[in-house]
Amino acid sequence: MYEQIASNKRKSVALFAGFLLLYGAVAAAVWWYAGYGPSVVVVVIAVVVATVALVGGDDMAVRIAGARQIERKEEAPELWRLVENLSIVAGIPMPRIFISPDPSANAFAAGRKPEQAVVCVNQGMLELLDDRELEGVLAHELSHIRNYDVRLMTYAAVLAGSLVLVAQLAARIGFLSGGRGRRDSNGGGAAGILQLVVLLATVVLAPIGATIIQLSISRKREFVADASAAELTRYPQALASALNLIGGDSTPPARDERTIAHMMIAPQLTVRGNTSKLFSTHPPMEERVAALMEMAAGTPHQHGLPVVQTFLEVSEPPADFGDETPAVFRDE
Amino acid sequence: MVPLIIVLVIVAVIALWAAATYNGLVKLRNRAEEGFSDIDTQLKRRHDLIPNLIETVKGYAAHEKSTFEAVVAARAGAVAAQGPADQAAAENMLTGALGKLFALAEGYPDLKASQNFLALQNELTDTEDKIQASRRFYNMQVRDLNTKIESVPSNVIAGVGHFEKKAFFELEDPASERQNPQVSF
What is the pTM of this model? Predict the structure, then answer.
């Protein structure tokens, strides 16, 4: 467990180092090709874009999911209680709770700090899981918050996004300054072409590198969060059972949520209902279930009635959700 | 000259490590203490609910004196208890006495249907869940603290700084009891 958290921390350092390298590579390529001035411009723009996105992007995920906040305990007392109690065990402030009308079984946590975190559960999840399983899933999400995974994943998403932007900018500088000023002083010719090739290669490869870093970290973190969830609930078989059910559920999501896919507990299905194997944000379900069952010395969890039938009285599940968001869930 | 620099660097590294370890221990100890005061808050909430509960039950089953007295005595014991071991023992007593009280309630349909009783019962269950939750948090911090105090080389710093191992807060988990078949009369 603690080895995993330690390796988690090493990965965080690796993430920032990796991004720094990629930014550096882009800036260096611009410098080599177009000179000192443009490279400074690229760096400044990168810093500004990243800062704006990091400061302003807190509730973006919830907005993307079209979720509705549970503001008072009375609206969903049992869900509230589960989150409240798990927050006590995890030693974090209680996050804000959201329910998304989406019929696919998924959940995510977001936010830069535990103090302003949110946890969001899809309607599909409430219709699929029993209370112990839901507890396991919530514990998994709260672990993401406690381990500062959500912050890192938000940063990773933002950094990857801004790197793409910077790379495009660099490419544009490459074409605009198209060797004019440089070639005169440089003598031009083969050296200029080589510089252009290096710049373009960097510009193309940097975003791919960013995506690979982002995904490898996301996958590793799912295992860590599963392990912490087991520590919080002391009942890993419920989460294993939940993951089995979620993995077997083929309800497609109502909207395309690929932008926040790496924050979700389960891999995003496409709107058509397939998983994308290439560039997967999550490790295979079977591996996660196996790891959890290894922690669970006891018997497998017996799946009970879904929470919507036992304790949850959240407002009407949307009957024909799909093409239009019901008014209650619409973002004001 | 060079050997002196090497010695100085080694001393500096050791000093930094010692400071970091000491601070880590302080952080763990404070978190354990915070966890313990959280348990205390929840225990107090539990104790505060009991007089109301007894009053409510009395209204329907006034003659079941011995059961009430057992709960009152157990509550007094729990309020007076100090330190994890004593408190845990007293709380377990109280849980036992309350169990008898609720078993008794099964025999009084009017009581069982009373809104007040149901509200109190829910509140009590919620408080017990929260006691379990804060207890688990506390125990996790204590485990981390004790591990650090015992392991090499942080045990040296723990010895010098007089860090002491803390006791776990052991309670019977009502959640596991609840899974047993309910007794009905």
Answer: 0.70
